[in-house]
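Let's study a protein:

___
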Amino acid sequence: MSTLSKEQIKAIVKGNNFQSVTDVTNYLKDIIQELMEAELEEKLGYAKRRT
């Protein structure tokens, strides 16, 4: 697993124009959701069915 450098984190913050902690929290929730779905897909061998 790799980590982000401070410069990469600054670029993400600048590129997303976060206005509040809630914005950051929602962004992180989306990332975690995508990571969890990718891990499940890898373990189960197929993608989650999206409606």
Q: What stands out?
A: Residues 22 and 45 are 34 Å apart (CA to CA). The mean pLDDT is 87.
